[in-house]
Amino acid sequence: MQRRLSRRTVLRGMAGGVAVSLGLPLLEYFLNDNGTALAQGAPLPLRFGTWFWGCGMNPDRWAPSAEGADYDLPAELAALAAVRDQVSILSGFNTVLDGRANLPHWTGVMATLTGSVPEFEPEVPAPTLDVLISQRIGTATRFRSLEIACTGVPTDSYSRESQSIVNSSAVSPLELYTRIFGPDFHDPKDGEFTPDPRTLLRQSLLSAVQEDAARLAGVLGSHDRQRLDQYFTSLRQLERQIEISLNPLDLAACRRPTAPRGEEIGTDLPQAVSTHRLMTELLVFALLCDQTRVFNMIFSWGLSALRKEGADISHHQLTHDETVDAALGYQPEATSFVLASMQAWASFVERLAATPEGAGSLLDNCLILAHSESSFAKSHQVTALPVMIAGGAGGRLRGGVHLRGNGEPVTRVGLTVQQVLGLPVSEWGTGSLTATRPLSELLV
Amino acid sequence: MSILSPFALCFRRAALAAAALALLAAGCAGDGSAAAPAAAPAVAAGPLAMRRLTEVQYRATIAEVLGDDIAVAGRVEPDNRRSGLLAVGSSFVSVTPSGFEQYDAIARAAAAQALDAGHRDALVPCRPAAPGAADDACTAQFVRAVGRRLLRRPLRDADVLPRVQMAGAAAAALGDFYAGLQTALSSLLLSPEFLFRIETAEPDPGAPGRLRIDSVSMASRLSYLLWNAAPDEELLAAAERGDLVDDELLAIQVDRLLASPRLVDSARAFFADVYGFSDIEQGLVRKDPALFPAFSQAMIDDAREQTLRVVTAHLLDDDGDYRELFTTRRSFMTRALGLVYRVPVPLAAGWQPFEFAADSERAGLLTHVSLLALYSHPGRSSPTLRGKFVREVLLCQDVPPPPGDIDFSKFADAQSGTLRTARERLQAHVANEACAGCHSLMDPIGLGLENMDGIGIYRAAENGAAIDASGQLNGVPFADAADLGRVLSRDPALGPCFVDTLFKYAVGRDIAPGEADFLAYLHQRGEQSGYRLRELLRLIVTSAAFRTTSGARVAEATPLPQETAAPSATPAAATPTPDGAMSPGATAPPTGNATAMATATPATPLAQPTASPTPTAAAYTFAALQEEILTPRCATQFCHSAQTHAANLVLAAGAAYDQLVGSAPTNAAAEAAGLLRVAPFDPEGSYLITKLMGPNEVALGARMPLIGNPLSAQEIDLIRGWIAAGAQP
Question: Is B78 in Cβ contact with A155 (below 8 Å)?
């Protein structure tokens, strides 16, 4: 059982009683004084996102040698040069198997996101971090969370409540655009807003459906009852969407982007990079318009299907089949995908950092967890996992430090993330993955 | 009008009067067709759980009830595979927020089309008094009629009245009667009883203490299995009369459904699910255009259609033996497929029957472009994926997951530049023990299909080296792809696997322990009569396994955290990160009590995996070692069983002691180090202990057991103790 504490208590504990008062009130400083913040005068929202790439990296070429701020950038982190002071590198955190099998390309990501080692693939031992967090910070927006995948497979999503309940990903920019900025999106700057009477009718329609479902609850067994509860949750989210579309927010920074063309999607690298770029654009607009506060971006899946154009073999296959070059000490072809992934990640961070919001940037109000399912993918290694955290989390996080885990469980990252985002959790994970201490080095 | 085979009659009579069974069976043997059907054994059927309509069923149901020209545009929440089947996954999934959005958008679009000026008269059984105003009577008539078809049951006032009221308000607000009906229809399309097939059970008067699926629930159970669609009027009427819990009356409906041409939809849905064709349907099979210029979505759509046509022509039109699907040379072609199969197709458009020549390299489903392209990578073929498909999907033999703790970096790297064929590349895998165990289950089968490239085009050579497609399947040699199909068709696991998969598909869950005898009976019946699809379906749907249940499925231990008390109208801006302790109600646990269905006896949970017993004996005996560790962990089907004898080591009861104690290991490094497999009185000189602890040198091989968790320190200490005490037999 998780013990629940207030976030204030947690922060006080983390900081050893010193300077606790800084974290929370910082938000207040971002309040609008020149029309750039939320029109209602409320604080800028805090967002959580994940950014995932498949098949890890080469630990020796990725982890900086110096700890702390102004860390060095080894070859596989070189792409982060422009945003180093906004990205913290967490190296050397492990999945502790407790004698369980290391399920290739599955165990590592489940450990990071659920705090537990799964028994089999595709078991999801507990709801993933983003699901826990969206229940806390995602309930007021039109979308509880947005899932995005860049290589064309809707089931490429680690946002899961359980093995069977998967929040599937949008795979085409046009599909994502239509979902967010389609007919149900209203920006008061577009002109006078008159709610469609049909929208009002949709509310009563959903009430009728809700009554159907409520009648069922009494006759279902416990398994189906849980599934019906999920159905209810989803129905309520749609109700909330309708309410919001009837009372659209007037946000100075919000603009409807132009619709992307219905373009190709696929697994070859240039295509994936292009899809990622368009998806990032749409996400930025969605965040500025406060359509969601939680997102999950999959650049490539754990079994990375990324390919060079015309190549007969994918990134994942390369990690296993390609020889480690004796002179170089790594697999040159497979590693080229690591570099490309880090470039995509850097471009993502740069885009958010370059987007003004309030007195700072959009990135300042985000906490983005970047991770992969393995470190050295050739051997499915789940020790020394690559983890990064970008963004200031509304003034709660120090940016740009390198922290060594020295084999500590990767769940310390998930615990820290939850506490920073206000979840009253003092302990997270199971077995040897149980984490009780957040990464105080990251905290302001 | 119904076609009753002598066998069906016989079986039904047998089912009617179990006491008179022996007599009847003897009488039926004289009917000639098959040997006397033995009695179906007693069944303790599995649990009941609601099933979400699969995407195909969802679309088919809307088309059937609202009209097949109603466009259901847009994506539907992806189905989820479990135990190899989307049909089984459908009894676990729910609806996510984005899934609900999609259902909502489709519902509104479909309702608008179905009630537009061109369609409304076909759907609405009455005319409003005035088209610009509400008409409660007509609305009620519409909701009852359409709702009964969509929800697959008669409607109650509680279903109808709120919708009449809602439609009335909408009609008044919008000045349009049909706009009111649209809201009512949309709400039906979002109802959980439309999106899910929710079945109810009732006490079986003929068998005290047992629950049977009630008549109305049986209608959907039958029609989604046998037609892959909602029940038609006749079946619904029969269900409402209570016919479907009566043996004879049920048989009449079963005969009618099985005799209908719509049975084709059932076979197509089943094979599309088993073969994973949803990936093709959703455009997820992608190939590199530079390497495979002949590939297109239109071509792969044709390839899928070709396979389904061959399957239904053979199994239904010809009532053929399932096993012959893997040898048949009969096929159908389009011109687009002709380019890939390299055969002339005179017909410019549409389908034409085609027969591969007797000396063709193609015969049977394994040489179909659909399966060859699906079980390949985007840039090349994959003997491993193809072999895994045959092993797991067609033979129902589990291939263990790859071991997670292999350090590939320590293996001598293959010189990939010099390896030209898939066989050469894969031999690099199989050359090391940790990979060989599982790859040897898959690759030799898939290598038999290597003459077909990543989209199924024939090739004699790869990178200039001739392809050797010979190999063996479970010890039986084959020469090439067509021959592999012949060997597969004779494999004893093929037919029973078909039966088991069909059964799981029919009931939407795994086989329950109390159904094992019934499955064995079905295997036997299949073996006797050639695994005919119609006969198997009839046996399944008339069985107690299909018609009864142990009760509602019980939730697994870990409840889903659900937000049940979310603030519904909090303005977005007013919720910065909440501070303070979360109130206990904010993440309330699911409210569901373990309410079993209706009156039921307490529901039986699904079999829970049990932890292996922990050995505790003070002086550990070999008998205990054999029973607690060697037999369950080592002598498994694919490892140290008598059949597989990996590393030439058999650890099954009877053989293990002699193979272990005092024997030299086959591992060269271990032998050179002077280790014995088990050296009595010397645990540290025993290679067994090294292997169980995890060798620290690559040359000593992988840690055992290869599959699953390592033994605990406590278990290894017990074995150590047994060796130290002299390794007594």
Answer: yes
Q: State residue A73 phi and psi, 5-degree precision.
A: -115, 100
Residue A190 pLDDT grade (very low, low, confident, very high; cuts 50, 70, 90): confident
B709 or B76, greater pLDDT: B76
Angle between helices B6-16 and B533-541 (to 10 degrees): 20
pLDDT value at B572 more than 50: no
Asked if the Cβ–Cβ distance from A309 to B290 is below 8 Å, we say yes
Contact state of A102 with B405 under an 8 Å Cβ cutoff: yes
Q: Does B418 touch chain A (CB under 8 A)?
A: no
Q: Is A2 on the interface with B (CB under 8 A)?
A: no
Q: Decide if B426 contacts B449 (C-beta within 8 A).
A: no
Looking at per-residue pLDDT, the higher value among A167 and A13 belongs to: A167
Give me the pLDDT at residue B672, please: 84
pLDDT tens-digit profile of A397-444? 998 999 999 999 999 999 999 999 999 999 999 999 999 999 999 998
Q: Distance from B650 to chain A by nearest Cα, in Å?
A: 24
Hey, is B682 helix, strand or coil? coil
Which parts of B111-240 are beta strand (E)? 196-197, 201-203, 211-213
Q: Which residue of B has its CA nearest to A374?
A: B404
Mark yes or no for CB contact B595/A233 under 8 Å: no
What are the Cα distances from residue A302, in Å, to A59, A68, A100, A128, B618? 17, 29, 20, 16, 46
The mean predicted confidence, pLDDT, of chain B is 84
User: Which residues does B68 contact at the CB level (< 8 Å), separation at least 6?
Assistant: none
Q: Which helix (H) or strand (E) holds B535?
A: helix B533-541
Whether the model clears a pTM of 0.90, i.e. scores above it, the answer is: no
Would you call B413 helix, strand, or coil by DSSP?
A: coil
Residue B581 has pLDDT above 70, yes or no: no
Q: Using the CB atoms, write b or e for A48-60: b if 16+ within 10 Å.
A: bbbbbbbbbbbbe
Q: How far is CA A120 from the centre of its chain?
A: 24
Look up residue B626 and give its DSSP letter: I
Using the predicted structure, report yes or no on whether residue B577 has a pLDDT greater than 90. Answer: no
Angle CA B181–B187–B191, to nearest 5: 145
Query: Which positions ≥6 away from B45 have C-beta within 8 Å?
Result: B507, B512, B514, B515, B544, B545, B546, B547, B548, B549, B550
Q: Per-residue DSSP letters for A368-432?
A: EEEE-S-SBGGGT--SSEEEEEES-TTTTB--SEEEE-TT-BTHHHHHHHHHHTT---S-B-SGG
Task: Tell me the chain B residues in contact with residue A222 when contact means C-beta distances shorter than 8 Å.
Answer: 552-555, 592-595
pLDDT more than 70, % of chain A: 91
Contact indicator for A367, A420 with CB cutoff of 8 Å: yes
Place of tokens 């997102």: A295
User: Cβ(B265)–Cβ(B228) under 8 Å?
Assistant: yes
Residue B556's pLDDT band (cuts 50, 70, 90):
confident
B573 in A contact zone (CB under 8 Å): yes
Q: How distant is the Cα of A250 from the closest Cα of chain B, in angstroms?
A: 11
pLDDT tens digits for B584-625? 333 333 333 333 333 333 333 333 333 334 444 457 899 889
Mean pLDDT over the full length of chain A: 88
**Token reading at B371:** 């399966």
With H, G, I as helix, E, B as strand and everything else as coil, classify residue B646: helix
Question: Minimal CA–CA distance to B94: which of A163, A125, A216, A238?
Answer: A163
How close, in Å, is residue A142 to chain B by CA atoms?
9
Burial readout B98-111 (b: 16 or more C-beta within 10 A, e: otherwise): bbbbbbbbbbbbbb
Per-residue pLDDT at B648 exceeds 50: yes
Read off the pLDDT of residues A88-104 as tens digits, 9 standing for 90 and up. 999 999 999 988 888 88
